[in-house]
Design brief:
The chain has helices spanning about 35, 75-80, 80-90, 95-110, 115-120, 130-145, 155-180, 195-205, 215-225, 235-245, 250-260, 270-280, 285-295, 315-330, 335-350, 350-355, 365-375, 380-400, and strands at about 5-10, 10-20, 25-30, 55-60, 65-70, 70. By secondary structure, it is mainly alpha-helical. The protein has three domains: about 5-65, Rubrerythrin, domain 2 (Single Sheet), CATH 2.20.28; about 70-260 and about 385-400, Orthogonal Bundle (Citrate Synthase, domain 1), CATH 1.10.580.10; about 270-375, Cytochrome P450-Terp, domain 2 (Cytochrome p450-Terp, domain 2, Orthogonal Bundle). The strands form two sheets. It has a three-stranded antiparallel β-sheet with strand order 1-2-3. Helix 6 (about 130-145) packs antiparallel against helix 11 (about 250-260) and helix 7 packs parallel to helix 8. Bound molecules: s-citryldethia Coenzyme A.
């Protein structure tokens, strides 16, 4: 394969380097395009534009491949815990028993939040969206840790900041839920697993300690593992853009939370359940929603369908569908919404509109049903996605600093008014 690309423009020829990645993905490096030609490229939504070279996650959208640091998601999802996965994504290798013990100890150490921080939760209206609280509190936590406000990208400082964020994001999420529900907060219990501790903080009551069942603990681990990283998606790119200005890790991930909140991104998992509940309550056939999704005059999209990269199945959706079915059986639960979801998927698989546009269920289509089976409230679904994605955000932020990337500052093509003289007020 050639290692140069030639561009013929205005009677001249220009050469640019071609780079081939470890999975034979190829790019034309155009870092000198404007200096050489005076032209820029235009790619709204960046569907054809790479922002970085990365060693963290590989996605091959036409084959439904997803690997974290080279390990297939199917193996990680069934054989690792979320804490092991977070370590892998952060440090590049699966932890040894000793590394896992030390990493887990750091997560336990950082689970509590400063008592002064607790008061801030009562300042939010009970109707406050938990994603707004999460983003605000992540920034607020940094005020209590001035020692990590600088840009620690390596060594003990980075390890500490990463563990602190991975651990406290859980505590903040659970406290936000409890305060909004008017329930007393549960402080973290260091004797529980990462997921068990979260479930305890969410659901224990003064008179009844929440009993973490191994099935539910496993299901929540799986959910978080499947959300742990996903290349340069909207929220991870946001973390990189904010971090490229040398903003600290707390403010960078807080920005990532805001991007993830969008209904086309992490907000879709709650959108799927709302759609399925609407189908269930309205008694309208699934076809009604499919027809709306196909109608160009209707802004409605079939939530949980489609993906910028996966033009075949999303491997995470395959794993989740199986897991939800198994979890409901194990908990002796039935959920009409699962049957509706499967029916929707079945109809779309035969529908030309979806087939021709490669629209398949994505990670959000079945993930909400798993959270529903565990008892997570609907307004916390995207917060759960943020807890899962925290390792990916942190690892991408660190990799950007390791590669010493320049500040992100895209160009534009101006299409507004050309130069014109100022008009005094009296003449307007
Ligand atoms: C996540 O990037 C990541 O990796 C994200 C993520 C991660 O792990 O970080 O995987 C997590 O965000 C998953 C996506 C969750 N969002 C949704 O489920 C919302 C519904 N999906 C769509 O909004 C859409 O599919 C996107 C946002 C996911 C992808 O948008 P694209 O790549 O810009 O695709 P597009 O909007 O250009 O769609 C191409 C065509 C269009 O039709 P035409 O103009 O060609 O006629 O497909 C249609 C779209 O109208 N289309 C849909 C549709 N998704 C795309 N039509 C109906 N329903 C849908 N869901």
């Amino acid at each position: 394969m050639q290692d140069k690309a030639t561009l013929h423009l205005d009677g001249k020829s220009y050469q640019f380097d071609v780079f081939t990645g470890s999975e034979n993905e190829r790019c034309i490096d155009i870092q000198n395009l404007r200096a050489q030609t005076g032209y820029i490229t235009m790619d709204p939504g960046f569907a054809n534009t790479g922002s970085c070279y990365s060693d963290i996650t590989y996605v091959e959208g036409s084959k439904g491949i997803l690997r974290y640091r080279g390990y297939p998601i199917e193996e990680i999802a069934t054989r690792a815990t979320f804490v092991e996965t977070a370590f892998l994504i952060l440090y590049g290798e699966l932890p040894t028993p000793e590394e896992l013990k030390n990493f887990s100890a750091r997560l336990k150490e950082h689970a509590p939040i400063h008592t002064n921080l607790e008061h801030h939760f009562s300042g939010f209206p009970t109707s406050a969206p938990p994603m707004a609280i999460l983003s605000a509190m992540l920034n607020l936590v940094s005020c209590f840790h001035p020692e990590v406000l600088d840009v620690p990208t390596t060594g003990d400082e980075f390890d500490r900041t990463a563990s602190l964020l991975l651990s406290k994001v859980r505590t903040i999420a659970a406290f936000a839920y409890r305060m909004a529900a008017g329930k007393p907060i549960n402080h973290p219990n260091p004797n529980l697993t990462y997921c068990g501790n979260f479930l305890h903080m969410m659901f224990s009551d003064p008179y009844q300690e929440y009993e973490v069942s191994p099935i539910v603990d496993r299901a929540l681990n799986l959910f978080l593992i499947l959300h742990a990283d996903h290349e340069q998606n909207c929220s991870t790119s946001t973390v990189r853009v904010v971090g490229s200005a040398r903003a600290n890790l707390f403010s960078s991930v807080a920005a990532g939370v805001c991007a993830l909140w969008g209904p086309l991104h992490g907000g879709a998992n709650a959108g799927v359940i709302a759609m399925l509940e609407d189908i269930h309550k309205s008694g309208r056939p699934a076809q009604y929603y499919i027809d709306r999704a196909k109608d160009k005059d209707d802004s409605f999209k079939l939530m949980g369908f489609g993906h910028r990269v996966y033009k075949n199945f999303d491997p995470r959706s395959i794993i989740l569908k199986k897991q939800v079915d198994g979890l409901l059986r194990a908990l002796n639960l039935d959920d009409d919404l699962l049957h509706i979801a499967m029916q929707l998927e079945e109809v779309t698989l035969k529908d030309e509109y979806f087939i021709s546009r490669n629209l398949y269920p994505n990670v959000d289509f079945y993930s909400g049903l798993l959270l529903r089976a565990i008892g997570i409230p609907l307004n916390m679904y995207t917060v759960m996605f943020a807890i899962g994605r925290m390792p990916g955000w942190i690892a991408n932020w660190q990799e950007m600093h390791e590669h010493n990337l320049r500040i992100s500052r895209p160009r534009q093509i101006y299409t507004g008014k050309t130069a014109r003289p100022f008009v005094p007020l009296a003449e307007r």
